[in-house]
Amino acid sequence: MRDLGGDYESWLERLRFDDRDLVPVIAQDATTRAVLMLAWMNPEAFRRTLATSRATYWSRSRQTYWVKGETSGHTQHVREVRIDCDGDTILLFVDQQGPACHTGTTTCFDAHLVFVDGGRSDQFGATGD
């Protein structure tokens, strides 16, 4: 793993934003390693996240920045940032306070389909989070 230090611009140079100037971000619990949610960042949201250590995203529907937990109190303190090999996805390891999902569940990925021995089982539904 290559440490790019605190030079935010060198981090931005590694990122490949899409035609809307966005990149997907996966938030993962730093302790449990549970995948919590997927959101989006533009370059400024990324800068704000690195500067404050608070996950700051770009809302595609509201066309504005949102700091996770700013209104709900369910904050994400960023402990580590990783960029994938293509530079087109960000992975945040976070300390999550409260549920990550707006529905009140720990993770946004609470529906699951289980495959057993190469075939689909009849277990489909919420995890009961």
Report on the structure:
The protein has 129 residues and is mostly beta strands. The protein has a single domain (8-100), classed as Phosphoribosyl-AMP cyclohydrolase (Ubiquitin-like (UB roll), Roll), CATH 3.10.20.810. Helix content is 13%, strand content 40%. The strands form three sheets. A four-stranded mixed beta sheet has the order 2-1-6-5, covered by helices on one side. A two-stranded antiparallel ribbon has the order 3-4. Strands 7-8 form a two-stranded antiparallel sheet. A hairpin with a 4-residue loop joins strand 3 and strand 4. The N and C termini lie far apart (33 Å).
Class by SSE composition: mainly beta
Q: What does the main sheet amount to?
A: 4 strands, mixed
Strand content: 35-45%
What would you report as the Rg, rounded to the nearest angstrom? 16 Å
Number of domains: 1
Low-confidence stretches: none
CATH superfamily: Phosphoribosyl-AMP cyclohydrolase
The shape is: globular
Which strand order do you get reading across the main beta sheet?
2-1-6-5
The assigned CATH architecture is Roll
Order of helices and strands: HEEHEEEEEE
CA(first)-CA(last) distance = 33 Å
Mean model confidence by pLDDT? 89
**Secondary structure tally, helices:** 2
CATH topology, by name, is: Ubiquitin-like (UB roll)
Q: Helical residue percent?
A: 10-25%
